[in-house]
Amino acid sequence: MKYYIGIDIGLQGGIVILEKDGTIKEFHNMPKDKSGIDIIELDKIFWEYEGSPCMVIFEKLGPIFGSSKKTAWSMGVQVGLIKTICSIRSLPYTEVQAKVWQKEMFQGIPAITKAGKSSLDTKAMALEAFKRLYPKIDFKRPKADKQYDGLIDALLMADYGKRKNL
């Protein structure tokens, strides 16, 4: 493969295109319009990779504990849009369960739990993995000092694809 395209599904998600040598070619926040995902802008990100040796990697979604019906519907629509664009653009894709890619990418990182709970804080662990693997990359929000969780997860999924030679 020449490119690994990691996608973190969600309105706050992101897209990262990783070259086979591990260089980040480009990254995007999930394009949005008034109704949700901006399909035209999303397609513009993928059109140049049509026919290129690449693999698109995104999470295989299932029920998300505590999420609303509206959120579940939106996430399902987004997965459908991405699958459709990949099909139209002849881009191969794979869906990977969160626990699978996280197990690989979180190796060597001590467990971080959510405050007052025993469940893992996967966003905090992803940030630690990101800092360790990509110490020179800085995903900052404009006018704020907070990393984009969506870009971090997208990058880690792209890196997972590269490691597994998907």
Number of strands: 7
What's the order of the H and E elements? EEEEEHEHEHHH
Structure class: alpha/beta
The pLDDT mean sits at 91
Q: What CATH architecture label applies?
A: 2-Layer Sandwich
Low-pLDDT windows of residues? none
C-alpha end-to-end distance: 8 Å
Query: Percent of residues in beta strands?
Result: 15-25%
**Lateral strand order in the biggest sheet:** 3-2-1-6-7
CATH superfamily: Ribonuclease H-like superfamily/Ribonuclease H
- Largest β-sheet summary: 5 strands, mixed
Annotation field: number of helices: 5
Question: Can you give the helix content as a percent range?
Answer: 25-40%
Per CATH, what is the topology? Nucleotidyltransferase, domain 5
Count of domain modules: 1
Topology:
Layout: E1 3-8, E2 14-19, E3 24-29, E4 32-33, E5 36-37, H1 39-47, E6 54-59, H2 69-88, E7 93-96, H3 98-105, H4 122-133, H5 149-163
Q: What is this structure, in a nutshell?
A:
This protein is an alpha/beta fold and 166 residues long.
